[in-house]
Write a structure and sequence with these properties.
Layout lengths: L1 E8 L13 E3 L21 E2 L2 E2 H9 L4 E4 L23 E3 L4 E3 L5 H11 L2 E6 L6 H12 L5 H8 L10 E4 L12 H18 L4 E4 L10 H14 L7 E8 L9 H9 L1 H18 L6 E9 L16 H16 L4 E7 L9 E4 L2 E4 L1 H9 L6 E2 L1 E5 L2 E5 L6 E5 L1 E8 L2 E8 L6 E7 L4 E9 L18 E4 L9 E5 L3 E9 L1
Parallel strand pairs: 1-22, 2-5, 2-13, 5-8, 8-9, 9-10, 10-11, 11-12, 12-13
Antiparallel strand pairs: 1-17, 3-4, 6-7, 14-15, 16-20, 18-19, 20-21, 21-26, 22-25, 23-24, 23-26
Helix pairs in contact: 3-4, 3-5, 5-6, 6-8, 9-10
The structure holds alpha-L-arabinofuranose (AHR).
Alpha-L-arabinofuranose (AHR) binds next to loops.
């Protein structure tokens, strides 16, 4: 057994971990919305106003803070008026990006009600690629305006007299790609026009511009995008957040080598590089304005997830541990990361739940979100982690990256210190001395997510193969804490301070 140390300074608790970091993303893609969230009121699947009760309960249990909708690539081909009014009269349209029909049964009012039922904020993505500023500002008016207008009367006629109060608005999605193939400066001009009118209708909305990931040598356009956009924007008052997306892929879903296991975790460095470089660009161009980073799509995307199968894939313990590592990273970046949305809520990519007819099972990643739930609204705690590491190649980098076996983040809520630790080693259990500087522990409890093999997963036949369970953790007589973090596992410790 190897040894390691985690040192924490609870007295140096810093910024609040924004709940939005634990957000989700639901696109009209494959079976995410249709079948995954929405089954319709007449379905035999138990539902509340057409929304699956099992999925709703799962999201409520996670205290899902926010859900992004309707896309993704779908957003820049979506015209919101198609999805309001009597369902029988809504047009059948074509979902061009995901090559499927769209009934438009689940539209603005259904999504807003689903979010309200789940206790989550709604995050809408407006159509820049094939839409207009008029269409986007009207959408804000329809959702948020409290006064009397033709659009608010329409909303009332559609069953929602009170405004939906949608606080988060994305201005397009991946506009360097599926969202219109703009360049950074061209998009800045569009962004100004859209954001200008959207904000005018509701000054309280949070506006998110489309940014791009860095660090990929093969895609210089993306490396320039954030600079070009920020340089050409000229009106930083219109910008609250800049988004970026990052997907991870190493080996196949449940079939990967030891090297691919390690390389997946090396790729967390690429995500960190995105945050560092985006943060640097924002500081450079907007020294007097805080602009948050919103990672509104992230997660593991295996090669088996294709357009043909609606981006469905196996979700293993390895993927869950990657999610735990990325969420630890977002916590550590609490000063700058204002929201993140894992892709995608149900059935698609790194989902929380998989459905079939009446049945549903939860993925290992769901349990990571459950373990990390207590971090929401806590204050980030200063930490130091020491222990073994390994080397692996990360995306977009020629050099080997050093991956620390233990990856952690900690936050403080009142007297409760929450520490989440991923052991990213395939072969080493790590006995770890946890020290609290300037504080003493009164008690400790622990939960763990693990399985005998890292490619373990849940299924309809074995829905509980990988779940979070209570595990033993005890203070020693002298009050010190030593915990063994088993190989390929994630542990959440709750330390109550004296
Ligand atoms: O999440 C699937 C797709 O990935 C989204 O539609 C798009 O934004 C991204 O490329």
């Amino acid at each position: 057994m190897g040894g390691a140390a985690i040192r924490l300074w609870p007295a140096l608790a810093g910024p609040v971990v924004r709940p939005g970091i634990y957000g989700h993303f639901a696109e009209h893609l494959g079976r995410c919305v249709h079948g995954g969230i929405w089954v319709g009121e007449r379905s035999r699947v138990p539902n509340e106003s057409g929304v699956r009760l099992d999925v709703l309960a799962a999201l409520k249990h996670l205290r899902a803070p926010v859900v992004r909708w309707p896309g993704g690539c779908f957003a820049d081909d979506y015209h919101w008026r198609d999805g309001v009014g009597p369902r029988a009269e809504r047009p059948a349209t074509v979902n061009a990006w995901w090559r499927q029909g769209e009934s438009n049964e689940f539209g603005t009012d259904e999504f807003a009600r689903f979010c309200a039922a789940a206790g989550a904020d709604a995050y809408f993505c407006a159509n820049v690629g094939s839409g207009s500023p008029r269409e986007a500002r009207d959408w804000v008016e329809y959702c948020n305006f409290g006064g009397d207008s033709a659009l608010t009367r329409l909303r009332a006629a559609n069953g929602s007299a009170a405004p939906h109060g949608v606080r988060w608005w994305g201005v397009g999605n991946e506009n360097w790609g599926c969202g219109g193939r703009f360049d950074g400066a061209g998009y800045a001009g569009e962004y100004r026009r859209f954001a200008n009118y959207m904000r005018q209708i509701d000054p309280s909305i949070q506006l998110v511009a489309c940014g791009a990931s860095f660090g990929d040598r093969k895609n210089p356009v993306l490396n320039e995008w954030n600079h070009d956009f920020c340089a050409a924007l000229k009106h930083p008052d219109l910008l609250d957040h800049l988004s970026l997306h990052r997907y991870f892929s190493r080996g196949a879903g449940a079939d990967f080598s030891d090297g691919e296991f390690r390389a997946l975790f090396a790729d967390v460095h690429a995500m960190e590089r995105d945050l560092e470089l985006t943060g640097a660009v924002l500081r450079y161009y907007f020294p007097d304005r805080f602009v948050g980073i919103v990672v509104d799509e992230w997660g593991v995307w295996h090669p088996s997830a294709t357009v043909e199968n609606g981006l469905e894939q196996e979700n293993t313990l390895r993927d869950a541990l990657l999610a735990g590592s990325v969420l630890n990273l977002f916590n550590r970046w609490a000063r700058r990361v204002t929201m993140a949305n894992i892709a995608q809520t149900v059935n698609v990519l790194q989902c929380m739940a998989v459905t079939r007819g009446n049945a549903m099972f939860l993925t290992p990643t769901y349990y990571v979100f459950e373990l990390m739930r207590p971090h929401m609204n806590g204050r980030l705690v200063t930490q130091e982690v020491e222990g073994p590491s390994y080397e692996a190649h990360g995306t977009g980098f020629t050099a080997l990256r050093t991956v620390d076996c233990l990856d952690a983040s900690a936050s403080l809520s009142g007297r409760k210190l929450h520490l989440t630790v991923v052991n990213r080693s395939l072969g080493e259990d790590l006995e770890t001395a946890i020290t609290l500087n300037g504080a003493k522990a009164a008690s400790v409890s622990a939960k763990i997510l693990s399985a005998p093999v890292p490619n373990a997963m849940n299924s309809f036949e074995t829905p509980s193969a990988v779940t979070a369970k209570r595990t033993k953790s005890e203070l020693r007589e002298d009050g010190s804490l030593v915990h063994v973090f088993p190989r390929h596992s994630m542990t959440a410790l709750t330390i109550t301070l004296q």
